[in-house]
Write a structure and sequence with these properties.
- With 600 residues, the chain is α+β, with helices and mostly antiparallel strands.
- Helix content is 32%, strand content 21%.
- A hairpin with a 5-residue loop joins strand 15 and strand 16.
């Protein structure tokens, strides 16, 4: 797609020249940023796609710290720059779960990302132009670090986008050559990118001719609105907004012919009485501008009350706001109390208490949670935004649904004592060479990961060590000869129930002949891989992730499952993997860890 003037053929510009002679961009590490990812895109999916370009050190999909939902981007680390560059050149704009990904070199220096140097803004784009088209068009003017066409939730173009060049001279050349030229049948605007923060003062200072009027009485008409504002200048139009039944919505607009008259009307009429109410009069704003302003005010209010606003529920109907304040004021200075009521004025059974400091709020939560107030025990906790709470509940319900599908207990679920398998915390998704970290902190009482008994891999001589105690002959079971029997997770065995109980292996997995039917091929491989990783980490903690990735990449589900049940086979496979790694070692400098990339 080539830009062209919307003029006569004789005015067509010379074809844009490439800046190939400029010094090429040299990345500091073989790390790639992958953006525009669907929420369903996981590390496993990315690994299958990006491994075609070369050996991968680590992959991480960045997620929300609270609800663990994908933020829509990830980082991929390769062993060397050549493999990373190959991925950038061959996999950019590859569809991943229905969305074309956007790949660029990871820039760990935030000062370089936020300077705005080399960044341009393009608007009035035709809906047919996507990110790849934009990249192809503007790559003729220099080395593009990042390129993006903004889209809505359905993936349709919003008609504008951004291109970030390595050098400002390349951006200036693109602006000079493409601004006011035609792309796909539309004349586009191309100019320097200005951040929203820098644009805000300009928007506030610009002149306006439309005034917004709210809190109008229901009986105020357009004629009355026009007459009230006519003394400030020529009113071009006055309208009161109404619903489908013709009833006033309580707000309207007044349009002046001269901006100075509109400003004079706003200054004089704001706070004055019109009809039976005191009205608000201000500059009419675009919906997007007003939404941004409200969002900023809302975030400021949230930050102001972060950690000091308490949610109190299970209130008796007789509890008033004065009584609530009296009960909590011994913990510190209360700035506000509120009990929520319905349209009839009856208590909804919950409310809020806001303190002046986080320490006061913490003491109140510690001492008042579970306290009897009136006839009911209170629940007291830190107030959460509705969307955060909803996301947490959705995540919890999703875990319970998966647990029911696999026959394993999820949050809030318990299995009968005779059927309860031993549960272990699952490590996050891993790939060859990726450093393993706990996704959640260890909880008190959480059982340790499974260990091989005699015959399995160990860090010392086989058999019981000096600190191990054996209370009987070796047992033969799912864990292999010599594996110790597992104890029920919830106390002594209860009475035997009628009917067949669900069959689980010693690792809390469905039987080998059922696991793929229950969990699917990918889910089964991931679940088995987590158990394989924990076993390998006992003897090879530094290479556990790499060896596990090798197993997952080369072995089918059934063979992986057999490794769990056969310690001798597991030990042999680990030995083979170590020999392969020894042969493959080469003097390659250590790449940056993904944690360093994500923290940049």
């Amino acid at each position: 797609m080539s830009p062209s003037h919307n003029d006569t053929p004789g005015d067509a510009p010379v074809a844009p020249t490439s800046t190939a002679s400029a010094a090429p961009f040299v990345p500091s590490s073989p790390s790639l940023y992958v953006g525009n990812l669907a929420p369903e895109a996981t590390e496993a999916i990315l690994f299958e796609i990006f491994k075609t370009a070369g050996p991968i050190v680590s992959i991480r999909v960045c997620r929300d710290a609270v609800i663990r939902r994908s933020l829509g981007y990830a980082y991929v680390n390769y062993n060397n720059l050549a493999d990373a560059e190959n991925a950038l050149n061959t996999l950019n704009f590859t569809p991943i779960v229905g969305r074309p990904c956007r790949i660029m070199w990871s820039q760990r220096d935030p000062s370089k990302r936020k300077t705005g140097v080399g960044n341009i803004f393009i608007k009035n784009l035709d809906k047919s132009i996507d990110t790849q088209n934009l990249n192809d068009t503007f790559s003729a003017f220099g080395n593009i670090l990042s390129c993006k066409v903004e889209t809505d939730a359905a993936g349709h173009s919003k008609g504008y986008g951004y291109v970030h060049y390595e050098k400002q001279a390349e951006a200036d050349l693109a602006i000079a050559r493409v601004n006011n030229m035609m792309l796909a049948g539309k004349v586009v605007y191309v100019g320097p990118f200005t951040s929203r923060k820098d644009r805000a003062p300009e928007e506030q200072d610009k002149k306006f001719s439309n005034a917004f009027v709210k809190n109008l009485s229901e009986d105020v008409t357009e004629d009355q609105l026009r007459d009230a504002f006519a003394k400030f200048g020529v009113v071009m139009n006055a309208v009161v907004m109404r619903d489908e039944a013709g009833k006033s919505k309580g707000f309207g607009f007044v349009s002046f012919g001269v901006p100075e008259e509109a400003a004079k009307a706003v200054e004089a009429m704001n706070g004055q009485t019109l009809g039976q109410r005191v009205v608000y009069v201000g500059r009419a704003q675009k919906k997007s501008e007003r939404e941004e302003e409200l969002k900023t005010e809302h975030l400021e209010a949230l930050q102001k009350h972060q950690g000091v606003n308490l949610y109190v529920k299970n209130l008796a109907d007789s509890i008033t706001e004065e009584r609530l304040r009296t009960e909590f004021e011994r913990f510190g200075n209360i700035t506000s109390t509120k009990i929520m009521i319905d349209e009839r004025g009856n208590s909804k059974g919950f409310g809020f208490v806001c303190f002046s400091s986080a320490d006061e709020a913490t003491r109140a939560v510690t001492e008042m949670n579970g306290t009897l107030l009136g006839s009911k025990p209170l629940y007291v906790g830190l107030a959460q935004r509705k969307d955060v709470r909803r996301s947490q509940l959705e995540a919890q319900h999703a875990q319970q649904a998966v647990a029911r599908a696999t026959g394993m207990p999820g949050p809030g679920m318990r299995m009968p004592p005779m059927m309860a398998p031993q549960m272990y915390p699952a490590p996050p998704m891993f790939h060859p060479g990726a450093p393993m970290q706990r996704m959640y902190p260890s909880q008190p009482g959480m059982p340790r990961p499974p260990r091989f008994a005699q015959g399995g891999p160990a860090s010392g001589p086989r058999g019981p060590g000096p600190h191990q105690r054996r209370s009987g002959p070796p047992m033969t079971g799912p864990g292999g000869p010599g594996a110790r029997p597992r104890q029920p997770a919830h106390g002594p065995a209860g009475p035997v129930r009628n009917g067949p109980a669900p069959v689980m292996s010693a690792f809390g997995l469905p039987p080998a002949d059922q696991i793929e039917a229950v969990m699917g091929a990918d889910g089964a491989k991931q679940a088995i891989g987590e158990q394989v990783y924990m076993l390998i980490s006992q003897t090879q903690p530094d290479l556990a992730a790499k060896i596990t990735g090798m197993f997952l990449d080369s072995l089918p589900v059934r063979e992986l499952y057999d490794l769990l049940l056969t310690p001798a086979s597991m030990e042999g496979k680990i030995g083979e993997a170590l020999r392969v790694l020894d042969l493959a070692q080469a003097p390659i400098s250590a790449p940056a860890s993904i944690e360093q990339v994500a923290s940049a």
